[in-house]
Amino acid sequence: MLTAFDKKLLNVLQAGLPISSRPFADLAQGLESDEKTVLSRVKELKEQGYLRRIGPFFDSAKMGYRGTLVALRVRPEAMKSVAEAVNRHVGVTHNYEREGRYNLWFTLLTPNEEMRRRILAEIRALPGVEALLNLASHKKYKVNVQFKLG
């Protein structure tokens, strides 16, 4: 169960971390707490699944990367092993099991088309993968979603 403090902490984390040598100490100050408490709560919230990741967002296109959304049809008994194999690729940023004919979706960022083709060929050849759709992006849409916890 989230405490009032946890909700405040999650709200400020969604807005971003201060760029400083002690960002969690800076957050703690704004939350009228201390760095040790903030770090402890962040660790616990991550372990409980409330936090997936804390890290920067980069403009991948400016860095020369292109993205694609990939849909896989995976036999249910192979789902875990396929998802783990997909996650081992550095350029995979999201990977989710879904209901429906295509039941595993992920995004992939690569610096060039050759690397994208090679990675997708490796994934297509995994045991249990029945089909792969490569839905390459042509235009970037950035949606900033923040959940206001009250």
Offer a few descriptive terms.
lyase, 150 residues, EC 4.1.1.111, alpha+beta, four-stranded antiparallel beta sheet, siroheme decarboxylase, Alpha-Beta Plaits, 5 helices
Protein described:
With 150 residues, the chain is α+β, with helices and mostly antiparallel strands. It contains five helices and four strands. It folds into two domains: 4-48; 60-136, Alpha-Beta Plaits, CATH 3.30.70.920. The protein has helices spanning 4-15, 23-30, 35-47, 79-87, 113-124; strands at 66-74, 92-97, 104-110, 129-136. A four-stranded antiparallel beta sheet has the order 2-3-1-4, covered by helices on one side. The longest helix has 13 residues, at 35-47. Residues 6-52 form the Siroheme decarboxylase NirL-like HTH domain.
Short description:
The protein is α+β, with helices and mostly antiparallel strands and about 150 residues long. The protein folds into 2 domains: about 5-50; about 60-135, Alpha-Beta Plaits, CATH 3.30.70.
